[in-house]
Amino acid sequence: MVSKQEIGFPVSGGIKTYAPEISSTPQDFSVLDNVRASFFRLLPTRGHLSKFDLADETAWGLAYVFNVGLQTLQFYVITNSSAYLLNVDDADVFSLSLVGTYNWTEESPIAWASWDDDLVGAVYFTKLGTPIYRLTRSELTELSATFDPGGGLGIQKLSAKYMAIVQNRLVVANILMAGEAYPRRVQWSDVYNPEDFQLTSGKESDLWDLETGNLEITGLESHRGYMIIFTRRSIWRATYVGYPQIFRFEPLFSDFGNIYHYSVVNAKDTLFFIGNDNFYTLDGFTPIEIGDDVWKFWLDTNATRLSHPCKDLRILPNTKSFGNIAERVVRMYP
Predict the structure, then answer these.
(1) pTM assigned to the model
(2) In this predicted model, what pLDDT tens digit does every residue of 134-169 receive, in sequence order?
């Protein structure tokens, strides 16, 4: 289980299994090529990882998209200013080729989403101060996706901290536009058109601002057909209701939320996040404490503060026993 900043994919070139995908017992598999089951994961038994020299660049994410027409996956490495295509030449040889560079104003993690409804899939990404870009095959394009916020500002390009695909539209949250911050805003594109954010009659593109008391948005995910929005003090659910309202927003919880930016993990049908008193999972729409002892262990070893947000929260196989955790350990990487 991985976060958007850490995408896992096979490197041995020969992993073949039948359902279930992950198991602790080899008997559950009909075919196992170059892989073994361990700690509820598939581990390669041969092959190697290559190291890539990105000079002075920092890799902020590994994105991927499925091309329906070609029936292939494409992987992209996105750094602070550039996008690279990850080429898999054969089972053990990997290389990077520069796709292009993009404009940026601050060094920060990217937000990305995979749009694979078309024959040729696309990766969309943004970060604060960087407008939305599209990666398709070996092309990097700055979108003309714009929005007129009014107030005499004119047409502006969107940038955001968070991005997701929800109900066949591209959604961004915690927005920076024309130098103005909208940390409590969620905005989405027209249905089946991830590049159209104009507010026009007859379209389903629109925006919504959280109440002032909710502070800024710290997470955005698509969860079981719903849009889930985290702030430090609340968790909201948006239900698609169709035109003209589009989404109906309602608070699930108003007494706690996710306190660190970039720390929400979406693992299939379960969300993991960091509350102000514990680690939590959101399985369906019920928050479940993972364990007090894990929280105390994390506090004792990381000495974190709200001003030091984490950049990567990973759910890993359990190697030690901390309190109530029997199957997994949550680790935070600053």
Answers:
(1) 0.74
(2) 998 889 999 876 677 666 767 778 999 999 999 999
Strands 59-67 and 72-79: antiparallel
User: d(Cα 45, Cα 37) in Å, to the nearest integer?
Assistant: 10
Report the relative pairing of strands 82-88 and 72-79 from DSSP bridges: antiparallel
Under 8 Å between Cβ of 147 and 177: yes
The residue count of the chain comes to: 334
Dist. CA 326–CA 321, nearest whole Å:
7
Q: State how far the alpha carbon of 314 is from the alpha carbons of 1, 202, 267, in Å.
A: 7, 41, 10
Measured distance CA(240)–CA(246) in Å, rounded = 6
Q: Are residues 317 and 41 in contact, defined by beta-carbon separation less than 8 angstroms?
A: yes
Among candidate residues 153, 23, 137, the one with its CA nearest the CA of residue 75:
137
Reply yes or no on whether the pLDDT at 327 is more than 60: no
Nearest 5 degrees, angle CA 16-CA 22-CA 25?
A: 95
Q: Considering only CA atoms, which of 7, 203, 211 is closest in space to residue 112?
A: 7
Burial class (CB in 10 A: 0-12, 13-18, 19+), 249: middle
How distant, in Å, are the alpha carbons of 151, 154, 163, 290, 303 from that of 148? 9, 6, 20, 43, 43
How far apart, in whole angstroms, are the C-alpha atoms of residue 194 and residue 197? Answer: 8
> Which residue ranges form the domains of the chain, and what is each CATH number?
1-49 (no CATH), 56-301 (2.130.10)
Element (H, E) at 300: helix 292-302
CA gap 133, 140 in Å, rounded: 7
CB-based burial, 11-26: b 16+ in 10 Å, e otherwise: bbeebebeeeeeeeee
Determine the Cα angle at 265 with ends 189 and 25, to 5°.
Answer: 125
CA atoms within 13 A on the CB side of 149: 16
